[in-house]
Write a structure and sequence with these properties.
The chain is α+β, with helices and mostly antiparallel strands and 848 residues long. 15% of the residues lie in helices and 40% in strands. α1 crosses α3. The longest helix is centred in the first third of the chain and has 17 residues. The chain is globular.
Length: 848
């Protein structure tokens, strides 16, 4: 036999792989290279030089026992290429050990690549920078294969990392070296451990100076003030001493996006031919750079004639009204697209069709003619067929039962497809507070062949129950609180085996238990239950509440006749209903409540210190709530009117109330109480994490049924402070917050029957994670109470300003910290501190 030519075999491997090496068969037998021959692989292929599994490598190389291969041929070079592509090896060769008849016996020789023993900072970086780089940008870990690509990418990504921070002259050096020895701490002392297997990757950085944008200049700009173009650039900002919230660093990717925003500003004002002729950015010195932008504005365009083609469902005049663009209006491409496809208020042409089942609708705006500075458009419509909903699919709910979700869904099987109903469904599911509103999803699955569509809703459960176990300080005493609120309770499963995990849940009911105590001075107990769908078929809610409180001004024994104490027993039952008129954002609520107040030697709260009071009242509430989320709303409003009244007892008896004491007058309370509140939310940007403006107003009036009886000493308004005055035992008073002022300092000692309050808040979200929602706020407050109706002046109020933070934790609810500055002096309190901290608990505590 003749020896297989080494160079020939190597040449074939090189042609097949481009960067492979093959080893010839060993000396001792011959293969005729001029006559390719088929062989059968005899037995298992041997593998040498690696710790990896031999059989797995043979499978990767596709060299398995009894497989026929041709030598010389493509099989061996392909096998080498496959092994090389795993990137596990720095050397690969395949040897023919021997040939016995038609059988050939092979050995794979490889050399494992080195693996990282670790990675270290070689200097030039702070600890936090290195941790941020390696944790977020670089995918490094001990045991990772060391390749040329790895070293190149580490250097590139590290450089980009620091360039993004403004270090444009950064230099990066990446080296491999022996890992330092580790120190292992033992009980008896320190022991030096050997370095880990494999070299360590050292990343050394020379950041150089941070470069700031000193100036941005515009050339060729006539239609806009330069300040408008500066503001259009959201991320690329000039260096200003007062801009502390935004760095003036240069980031090329953000700069490209900001150039597009400049052009969008031109396009939205009719300058559709505007373009950036040239732009340059260059260093002024080692710490400063400059950007020069030259713009060709072109000239302004206008809409002329707009015609509709293909519309049969709606007349062209109706579509013109919805589009809202008239002949002579300034051309605005963005506005045109918004009114055709995606108006946030829903008043676009697509919504008009899709809210009536036309899921397969499409409209294509086509420019048909340009005359001077005016453009004609032809709107080419394909209406398609109306689609009906076939099935509703719900995914992701692990706790809440399907039927609880389905009853809130506005898209029902058999209904025509409606985009508005889908958007409303998302809002209703968010209002349930059981799911993360940021992770809700809707996926319509259309079937054009049948004209139907399945709608898939995906939700992600979030914790909604709250446990409160806390101690605090209020009323000059330590207050202990134990509370439990189950927001997704199930009475249906109360006696069901296996439903307690740890409590029966999933049916959307709310059960709340709360206890507060300061020992002998105060005890309060509250139990409430809410069924949002009484009977399970209609959104008619049932609310039941019962409570008992006891407070005292001394530490005497409970049965001591000289003890000062005040007891309250109360209960209420309410029924709520969603309305469909004037629209389905409205709801009404009717409630009957009863409170029994028992005073014994209790002074300083009301105009009498002994006696009892009965307060049997009916309350009617009409509200319209369209806010998009309960915890951090970005849009919508909540407008509420409520009227609470008692029976006018004095009109049904012959008592001379002018001769009676307050204790006798108010055995049975009589009053009419009216409140009107509004809260509007406006998102100032389209970004999810953008600022939101919240404007709130509130007015309250407590009127007597009979002037001879006078104003009720209960149900009055008390204003000032955080609205959180320690314990909540004064059910006969309504405590309203006014930040920046002392508690109850704005109203009189016994409260006032008239109130007005205004609040403006700018909210900035920090985290919308349902596990911990956090947002900052700046506020302006204004408010005042009055004793007499003739003195009420809603424009003459006490004002304050301040900042705060809100933290929502599912287990504890909303926690608030505010720092307010009062802007006015309260009559009779000239020495009140100018500013103070406030702490609040709850979503709407302290609001009207």
């Amino acid at each position: 036999m003749r020896i297989l030519k080494p160079l020939a075999f190597l040449f074939l491997a090189f042609l097949s792989t481009g960067k492979l090496y093959a080893q010839t068969v060993p000396v001792g037998f011959e293969l005729d290279m001029s006559k390719p021959k088929e062989y059968i692989i005899g037995g298992d292929v041997k593998v040498e030089g690696t710790i990896l599994d031999p059989q797995s490598l043979a499978l990767i190389a596709d060299l398995t026992p009894n497989k026929r291969i041709k030598v010389p041929g493509e099989d061996i070079p392909k096998a080498i290429k496959k092994l090389w592509e795993t990137k596990y090896f720095s050397y690969v060769s395949i040897d023919a050990d021997k040939v016995e008849g038609e059988y050939i016996f092979l050995t794979i020789h490889v050399k494992d690549r080195q693996r990282l023993g670790g990675f270290k900072s070689g200097g030039g970086m702070r600890k936090k920078e290195f941790e941020s780089l390696t944790d977020e940008a670089l995918d490094l870990y001990a045991g990772k294969l060391i390749t040329e690509d790895l070293l190149y990418n580490v250097k590139r990504i590290t450089k980009d990392f620091f360039v993004e921070k403004g270090y444009h002259s950064v230099k990066v050096e990446v080296t491999l070296d022996t890992c330092p020895q580790r120190i292992i701490k033992t009980k008896k002392g320190n022991t030096v451990a050997p370095p880990p297997v494999g070299p360590c990757l050292f990343i050394k950085v020379n950041k150089g100076p941070k470069i700031k944008i000193d100036d941005i200049t515009f050339t060729g700009v006539k239609e806009f003030k330069h300040g408008a173009l500066y503001r259009a650039m959201k991320e690329t900002k000039r260096r200003k001493w007062w801009r502390v919230w935004k760095a003036s660093k240069f980031q090329e990717g953000e700069y490209r996006a900001d150039k597009e925003k400049i052009l969008d500003k031109y396009y939205n004002k009719g300058f559709r031919d505007a373009y950036i002729v040239k732009d340059t950015f260059y260093d002024i010195d080692e710490k400063s750079m400059r950007i020069d932008i030259t713009i060709d504005e072109g000239h302004k365009y206008y809409f002329r004639n707009i015609t509709w083609i293909g519309n049969s469902k709606y007349r062209s005049g109706q579509l013109d009204t919805v589009l809202g663009i008239k002949k002579g209006d300034v051309f605005n491409q963005g506005e045109l697209e918004a009114r055709l496809f995606m108006n946030q208020s829903g008043g676009d042409v697509s919504s008009l069709y899709m809210d009536n089942g036309y899921l397969f609708f499409s409209v294509v705006p086509v420019e048909t003619r340009i005359v001077g500075d005016s453009i004609d458009y032809e709107m080419r419509i394909t209406e398609g067929r109306q689609a009906r909903i076939r099935d509703i699919i719900i995914k992701g709910n692990t706790k809440t039962n399907d039927h609880i979700i389905r009853r809130e869904i506005r898209t029902k099987p058999g209904d025509l497809f409606s985009r508005d109903a889908i958007i409303r469904t998302q809002r209703e599911l968010a209002q349930m507070s059981y799911f993360d509103p940021e992770k809700m999803g809707v996926n319509p699955i259309p079937d054009p062949a049948t004209g139907t569509v399945d709608i898939e809703y995906t939700v992600e459960e979030k914790p909604s129950d709250q446990i409160q176990l806390s101690g605090g300080w209020g009323g000059g005493r330590v207050i202990g609180t134990v509370g439990l609120t189950i927001s997704n309770f199930s009475t249906r499963n109360f006696f069901k085996k296996g439903a307690w995990s740890p409590l029966p849940s999933g049916d959307g009911q709310q059960l709340s238990l709360n206890c507060q105590s300061t020992g002998a001075f105060y005890q309060g107990y509250n139990l409430s239950f809410v069924e949002p769908w009484l009977g399970g078929k209609k959104p008619n809610s049932l609310s039941i509440n019962g409570y008992h409180t006891f407070t005292s001004n001394d530490s005497k024994k409970f049965k001591d006749p000289t003890k000062s104490k005040f007891k309250i027993f109360g209960a209420s039952v309410g029924l709520g209903k969603r309305l469909k008129w004037p629209d389905d954002w409205f709801s009404i609520y009717n409630e009957v409540s009863y409170q029994y107040y028992d005073l014994q030697n209790f002074q300083g709260l009301f105009s009498f210190s002994n006696g009892y009071v009965n307060n049997l009242a009916y309350r009617f509430t009409l509200s319209r709530n369209s806010i998009d989320a309960p915890i951090f709303p970005r849009s919508g409003s909540n407008i509420t009117f409520s009227a609470k009244a008692t029976i006018p007892y004095s009109h049904f008896n012959d008592k001379d109330y002018s001769q009676l004491s307050d204790r006798q007058k108010f055995k049975f309370l009589e009053y009419a109480k009216f409140k009107f509140t509004t809260s509007h939310f406006i998102s100032l940007t389209k970004k999810k994490m953008g600022p939101v403006l919240n404007a709130r107003t509130g007015f309250g009036f407590l009127l007597p049924w009979n002037k001879k009886v006078g104003d009720s000493p209960f149900e009055r308004f008390y204003m000032g402070g955080s609205g959180l005055t320690g314990v909540n035992f004064y059910f006969g008073r309504e405590i309203i917050a006014l930040r920046g002022y002392d508690d109850n300092s704005v109203s009189s000692q016994f409260g006032d029957p008239y109130i007005a309050k205004y609040t403006l808040e700018l909210r900035q979200p920090i985290s919308l994670n349902p596990q911990a929602t956090v947002f900052l706020l700046g506020f302006l407050d204004g408010g005042k109470t009055w004793k007499e109706l003739r003195k009420v002046n809603p424009f003459e109020v006490y004002r304050s300003a301040g900042v705060g933070v809100r933290l929502f934790l599912p287990m504890f609810g909303m926690l608030g910290f505010d720092y307010g500055w009062r802007l006015d002096t309260v009559d009779g309190l000239p020495n009140m501190q100018k500013s103070q901290f406030h702490f609040t608990i709850g979503m709407n505590l302290g609001e009207l």
